UniProtKB/TrEMBL annotation:
It comes from Hibiscus syriacus. Its main location: membrane. It is a multi-pass membrane protein. This is S-acyltransferase. The keyword Nucleotide-binding does not apply. It is an enzyme of class 2 (transferase). It catalyses: L-cysteinyl-[protein] + hexadecanoyl-CoA = S-hexadecanoyl-L-cysteinyl-[protein] + CoA.
Length: 309
């Protein structure tokens, strides 16, 4: 009996909501173990313990704010979909618009009386989605979980119940970055608590809080290196201006058409302005960089479109 991939996609949709609850539960247990059970009480011990607790609580809450901000941004931000009846603009339709300035790429729609066939734009390397029954911009892929085409799709992430695409990829990377810092900090803070317990043989807390502390320590210690590996992989993808899906597509290609060099590749994800470490884009970035809108991407000057027969 053949495996039905669509049933698997349906299961992923259902799993997504559970994963959000799971993430919030981990955050809740971590907050209890670090803040309530240990470092708030340490504020009243005096001396070094008080100063250390103040610093620990400031760092913990600062990173927690960024984790929650980035996570919620990934969850609620539409990764980017293809407008109904979208088609690529021809050179005549674009006119004399400056290619470096965003000017409504992808906003053109098919005339209801105009018949356009999938083969009409082969020279532009524009593909046609037979599931959505419409053209799709470059770097766009169909997500079977979301049931639509996603602009510059990287992957569908069950942890955020959303696709990671053109509009929320930066937020996803920042979520990984701050989560790695937070899990590392929590592991170090709780390691200190557990070392005191094992060295002294006793600790002034209930068995329940001790169990919560141990579980929190194990979870964060496991997540930190895993997230670091995932983050390093995505940093490499950003450096090559590649998505996870495209990394497989370009295996047979000696050079990647969208690889413009580290700096420009970085700017296509994080923007030109200095809002690199917060999950927002400036209006100036959105105006000046069409790539942030998800419909058109500059290519290497030495790259030529393969001839199709």
């Amino acid at each position: 009996m053949a495996w039905n991939v669509f049933k698997f996609c349906t299961a992923l949709r259902a799993l997504g909501s559970i994963m959000i609850v799971f993430v919030l539960a981990i955050i809740g247990v971590t907050y209890y173990s670090v803040v309530i059970a240990h470092y708030v009480p340490s504020l009243f011990l005096g001396g070094f313990e008080t100063y250390f607790a103040v610093v620990a609580l400031i760092l913990f809450h600062s990173l927690l704010v960024m984790v929650m901000w980035c996570y919620s941004s990934v969850v609620v931000t539409d990764p980017g979909g293809v407008p109904p009846n979208w088609r690529p603009l021809t050179d005549e339709e674009k006119g004399d618009a400056d290619s470096l300035v965003a000017s409504g790429y992808g906003s053109a729609e098919l005339d209801s009386k105009q018949l356009v066939m999938p083969g009409d734009f082969l020279s532009l390397d524009i593909r046609f989605c037979h599931k959505c029954k419409q053209f799709k911009p470059p770097r766009t892929h169909h997500c079977s979980v979301c049931g639509r085409c996603i602009l510059k799709m990287d992957h569908h992430c069950v942890w955020v119940v959303n696709c990671v695409g053109a509009f929320n990829y930066k937020y996803f990377l920042l979520f990984l970055f701050y989560t790695f810092l937070e899990t590392t900090l929590v592991s170090l803070l709780l390691l200190r608590v557990l070392m005191e317990f094992f060295n002294d043989g006793e600790i002034d807390e209930t068995p329940g809080s001790l169990v919560a502390t141990f579980i929190t320590f194990v979870l964060n210690l496991a997540f930190a290196p895993s997230i670091l590996g995932f983050l390093i992989m995505h940093i490499a993808l950003v450096g090559g201006n590649t998505t996870t899906i495209e990394a497989y597509e370009k295996k047979t290609s000696p050079k990647w058409r969208y690889d413009l060099g580290w700096k420009k590749n970085f700017q296509q994800v994080f923007g030109l302005e200095k809002f690199w470490f917060i999950p927002v884009y400036s209006k100036e970035d959105l105006r000046r960089m069409p790539a942030l809108q998800g419909f058109e991407y500059p290519t290497r000057p030495d790259w030529e479109l393969p001839q199709r027969h």
